[in-house]
């Protein structure tokens, strides 16, 4: 399991909370308009659009209560948020009583709110909302009741998924009707009811932007960006597909088989399009990441040999000297110089010389422990920094490097190296150490090259206790 916590984009989190409040207000407003329609006997207000199915009065009451509960849930006062939960309980009760009516084939009186539904209701029971809407209200009430209970987070997410399925089925069946077909799957779910169910679900999910499913959508990661951009289109796709599918048959008169084939093409194309878009985003971010790694590495790397460059060397050397001063931790420094490299260049050309420098990089890296550092000091000179290593250890590494050079199958002629070894001493500055190791290297060259010479050890000076 990952130990890195979700990191949320604060602006996005606030945006989700604002969306949740806006949804709550919109739900209340639409449902109140519908109730006014029933109260004043204005059918157009209950259908919102001429010729459409009306939202029942009890469903509208459920939405007003759920919207108010959603608004109160974000209130800091515990009394108001607990009142909000009572409202959610009432929403659940409205849905549950309707379902009981369906199960027992009875009338418990809930279908005749505002008197209007007797007049305008359609279907088997005038004024009674359809089963999917009743189930939706039960789930909506459950969402509100479970909001503050962290333990039941997964159950709440499950209820939200159920609600989304009901709302999306309602929208898809409405799309089919819109495209000219009369036998709707949820013939009794009005379009504004389906839309309010969808919005209410999203509103409740957005009320806890850093928890459960929504926490991915507010994360400031690539996953967060994908979720924010793709989830809503994905939720609306079924309705769009259902509409196009039906339109192809009823309005354009295409045979069913051809319409199926075209639908398969549409859905495949849409999925491929979404995958392509996501892949593009991944690709762009990955390239940016690699570029930034490259830039970070480039700043401290010698391009020809792949070893650390002078700048990185100076930083690490300063660090080791500080550690020597403050914690009395010694280290060794080796200075290497390729022998007679000028004549090698003269004889075989600079490109062959560059190849030797590259191989030198490989040999030095191979000779060191992970904690050691190899750097190109300049031209054909190299420096090795060996933390926690005394001069004897430095000589051992030097011997290993000399052997590696002697044992390598050089393409033009054998290449050897001379090495100066020095151990840091308390009070050393970078120049003191380099001067000592340079002198040792000079001695190695004058002693006949292809060998290592250690600098004369300095008398140990005890670190001051102050
Ligand atoms: N090919 C190549 N040659 C380089 C590079 N940097 C420095 N050199 C060459 O390295 C040579 C160094 O020569 P010198 O300093 O005279 O020393 P040397 O010939 O190695 O003689 P000793 O050090 O006394 O053994 C010069 O000819 C430089 O041109 C490089 O990046 N590529």
UniProtKB/TrEMBL annotation:
Its EC number is 2.7.7.65. The chain crosses the membrane at residues 21-39, 51-72, 84-105, 125-147, 159-179, 191-218, 230-248, 260-282. It is an enzyme of class 2 (transferase). One of its GO terms (molecular function) is diguanylate cyclase activity. It catalyses: 2 GTP = 3',3'-c-di-GMP + 2 diphosphate. Its cofactor is Mg(2+). One of its GO terms (biological process) is negative regulation of bacterial-type flagellum-dependent cell motility. Keywords: Membrane, Transmembrane, Transmembrane helix. InterPro entries: Diguanylate_Cyclase, GGDEF_dom, Nucleotide_cyclase, Rev_trsase/Diguanyl_cyclase. Residues 329-457 form the GGDEF domain. CDD domains: GGDEF. It comes from the Bacteria. GO terms for cellular component: plasma membrane. This is diguanylate cyclase.
